[in-house]
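Q: May I have one protein plus its fold?
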Amino acid sequence: MTTLANYLNAHASNPALNDVITTVTDVGKTISQLLRKGALADILGEAGNQNVQGEEQKKLDVLANDLLDALAKNSHCAGVASEELDDAAPANADGSLLVLFDPLDGSSNIDINMAVGTIFSILPYQRQGQTSENSDFLQAGNQQLAAGYLLYGTSTVLALTITDNVVMFSLDPDTNDYVLIEENVTIDADTSEYAINASNYRYWRAPMQQYIDELIAGKTGVRGRDFNTRWVAAMVGDVHRILCRGGLFTYPFDTKDANKAGKLRLMYEANPMSLLIERAGGAATDAVNRILDIAPTDIHQRVPVVLGSKNEVEYVKNLHVNYTDK
């Protein structure tokens, strides 16, 4: 049996990375326990305030951020950024790492007992000895040293990448250890399953409308085969499904809200998930450009996302690149 501790000791590039990942995943154990208690721990419902994105915060959103203060106490962590905070929080100036996280992705699912998760990204810190600032976090996703998520569902699962592959662990409730369950996660290049919030169809660009129309047409259309829709309404759940059995997930550009043309956050969601997807053999774009190559301009920047099985992501890209008004 290989535990997370065993794996990190064997594969982490340096002790600092090992220690920070351990801090994140230990906090995940606490969140998992609170979620299992649900209403009994008084974590359901709204917290009564909004985050920096103008979204209502669930009680556990706030609690998760409080728990992740543990990162600020880690001597290797120079700064912490969260989608729930206006600005990144400086930590230990002598640290060599920066951590970004979405403390509870899919938090609107809490009250109905559906899957939610914690997404994290770890970047190098370039100015050791000085206090970290927002600008220090503005690194392209291809600079990530590690990324992963904790999925709190029927079991608690950790997906992690620190080398050139993706591994999965399951939290053993008897020993409270993360135990390796898959050592080399791979995504098939082709798929007949996709995830999208179809209620926004009227706000999409024409190439995305064309793509979904083709999938819906199934065998009777140009694709010549049927497709199935799956939608968890939590990115962490949809990405986990893709890592387990392939598929495509997209939250495309839309005109519903001019300030949120891309709903997902580059630094907290798109970058870490794209690293996992690519290292599992998939692809991740904003419909045209590789997400991991995007130079961020703000820690709360949003981007359109198309990720999953490589051939399907490429098909979407070609529709956008070659689209002309008819």
